[in-house]
């Protein structure tokens, strides 16, 4: 069984993009976020920057393998703004991201089809302006052992090229390693099978 252990995200906020339709202006932005709080802060900043705008519609998705998302139409007709924005997040397969599209109304109604197209296009343009990267999903393990077992543990770490995140090397030693999800079970078993060495997975 292949374990999916990569995800795509963006490294920094996108450049501002602008889509126009019948005098309405749609400004698109993409931000890297890891919490709902961060998403709210970016939204508040944009509301200050574009205080004369009519709508601040957005969608975000958080998580590396278990995703949760929110899409908000902010007063536009139901599903004409937030979901088209979210559709672009899905289409580009990115996560830990917030996309906001700010609308200035130009006096001419676009109709639901026109709105869906405008919000979708502004979101797509923001994503095209973003630096999308692929990252690995890593699990952290804590390895505990007494000092005499140090060589055994270090050998396994070296042979498997493991990434040491933190270590406390005293009489009772603790080393925290970070392992790619697809490798996690194999590495866990290696340490688990080592006499006098304890290993446990850490919650993120």
From TrEMBL:
Highest rank taxon of the organism: Bacteria
Domain Impact N-terminal: 22-127
Gene3D superfamilies, per the entry: Impact, N-terminal domain (3.30.230.30)
UniProt GO BP: regulation of translational initiation
Pfam families linked: Impact_N
GO CC annotation: cytoplasm
Family to which this protein belongs: Belongs to the IMPACT family.
Identification of the protein by name: YigZ family protein
